[in-house]
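step=encode ok
step=design start
structure_in=
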């Protein structure tokens, strides 16, 4: 793996393979153990079980989804949670509250799969536009959101109090247009194709634990 002058690494062409046989389902309380395990690996100030439970208790305006990978053959264990995402929809605007992937599976299209489903759920709730915040240094996540039509619209200084980082505000407008429908269909069509990422270098995310073969970036 080549090392760039700034210390980032470039992987060989082709990237990581998409994670096979992943399904997206509504988040239930039984999933919270797996969700919280990921939450503690990827965030310096993780959400609590009570906070997730509160969000799940407001289905009229919120949707939370999990990405599930099948258990090993002949295993009696249930499918394991490898990612999750949530959205709040109010007055025609969808605010994506969280998107996270288990560090073992970054750059394997888990977050892309979740976003396709989450944006479709947002449309079902009447959303006409969508917004989110992302750390200004998290270029991998910004690339991911840009593929879904999100563009920078401003900065919230010191938004992430636990690290003092600024948040980049991103918006996607005209969700009900034919152009956005085509974009979403294009992203859905890419989910199962070989190659799990853009090939861009990974950047450090110091607080993320247990990444496999990567140095930083987005899911």
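sequence_out=
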């Amino acid at each position: 793996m080549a090392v760039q002058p700034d210390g980032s690494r470039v992987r060989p062409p082709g990237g990581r393979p998409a994670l096979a046989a992943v399904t997206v389902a509504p988040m239930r309380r039984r999933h919270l153990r797996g969700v919280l395990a990921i939450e503690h690996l990827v965030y310096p100030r993780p959400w609590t079980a009570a906070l997730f439970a509160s969000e799940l208790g407001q289905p009229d305006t919120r949707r939370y989804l999990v990405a599930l990978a099948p258990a090993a053959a002949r295993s009696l264990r249930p499918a394991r949670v490898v990612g999750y995402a949530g959205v709040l929809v109010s007055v025609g605007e969808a605010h994506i509250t969280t998107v996270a992937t288990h560090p073992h599976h970054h750059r394997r299209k888990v977050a892309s799969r979740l976003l396709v489903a989450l944006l479709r759920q947002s449309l079902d709730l009447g959303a006409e536009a969508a917004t989110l915040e992302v750390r200004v240094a998290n270029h991998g996540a910004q690339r991911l959101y840009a593929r879904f039509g999100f563009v920078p619209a401003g900065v919230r200084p010191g938004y992430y109090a636990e690290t003092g980082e600024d948040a980049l505000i991103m918006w996607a407008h005209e969700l009900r247009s034919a152009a956005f429908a085509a974009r979403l269909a294009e992203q859905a069509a890419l989910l199962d194709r070989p190659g799990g990422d853009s090939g861009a270098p990974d950047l450090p995310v110091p607080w993320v634990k247990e990444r496999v073969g990567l140095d930083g970036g987005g899911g």
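step=design ok
step=annotate ok -> Residues 1-14, 215-219 have pLDDT under 50 and may be disordered.
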